[in-house]
Design a protein that fits this description.
Helix content: 25-40%
Structural class: alpha+beta
Number of domains: 2
Order of helices and strands: HHHHEEEEEEEEEEE
CATH architecture of the largest domain: Sandwich
Largest sheet: 7 strands, mixed
CATH topology of the largest domain: Immunoglobulin-like
CATH class of the largest domain: Mainly Beta
Shape: elongated
Number of strands: 11
Number of helices: 4
CATH superfamily of the largest domain: Immunoglobulins
Distance between the termini: 90 Å
Radius of gyration: 33 Å
Strand content: 25-35%
């Protein structure tokens, strides 16, 4: 339908900008900045009003005697401007935290066994204990603290051997999931399970948890196998 020159209908809107993330982010920042300026102006008005209120009170305008508690409580229902300033600084802190221009943080290390895939060396190892027969289980947290997508990550465990020569075959070790995607600045949890059969002798079995195609990354594994209590 033909519209006149004075018709400012929705057909003239730049619809492409609605779906532009960068334009939307700029618009949101502009709105936040305008709110910030308005809040600043409001605080300035409160401060000026507080000064006028004190001068208009029973005390002389040039008096240096501080107001008593009753006078302070009667000043806009608050003790001076302390509650207002606390709210102001709280709002300012929230604004800075929620600002779209803030730098994204890398994932923090969590409690437990951590393996930082962006590091050049490995951290503390795994220490497990199980009674025969049984299943030793632990969580292993993988962290990609870099800005690069590391793709698919596979963990492999070696055979576990005791000092006396007893062996737990690597086939008895299961990693779930077997393949883990690690995009930039991400963390994933995998479960390591070691099956200990009835014929395994008690003792401490040691091996290594390796990261496929990352030869510098590995974790020592120590499994203490104890006899089943009667």
């Amino acid at each position: 339908m033909d519209r006149g020159a004075g018709d400012s209908g929705t057909g003239d809107l730049p619809w492409a900008s609605v779906f532009d993330p960068a334009a939307n982010a700029r618009a949101l920042s502009a709105i936040q900045a305008e709110g910030f300026r308005a809040a600043s102006a409001l605080v300035d008005r409160f401060i000026r009003s507080a000064g006028v209120g004190r001068i208009a009170s029973d005390r002389p305008a040039g008096s240096t005697v501080p107001p008593d508690v009753e006078q302070r409580e009667n000043l806009y229902g608050a003790l001076d401007l302390e509650p207002l300033m606390r709210s102001w600084f709280s709002m300012l802190g929230q604004y800075l935290v929620d600002s779209g221009g803030s730098v994204p943080s890398t994932p923090p290390l969590v409690e437990g066994v951590n393996l930082d895939l962006a590091a050049s060396s490995s951290g503390a190892g795994l220490n497990l204990e199980v009674a025969v027969p049984g299943m030793a289980t632990t969580d292993v947290w993988l962290h990609n603290r870099s800005s690069e997508d590391l793709g698919d990550i596979r963990l492999r465990c070696s055979d576990l051997m005791a000092g006396g020569g007893s062996l737990i075959d690597s086939d008895e070790v299961r990693v779930d999931p077997a393949v883990t995607t690690m995009p930039a600045r991400s963390s994933r949890c995998v479960v390591l399970e070691i099956k200990v059969s009835q014929d395994i002798s008690p003792g401490v079995y040691r091996g290594s948890l390796l990261v496929e195609e990352h030869s510098d990354l590995w974790l020592p594994v120590a499994l203490r196998v104890r006899a089943q209590l009667e």
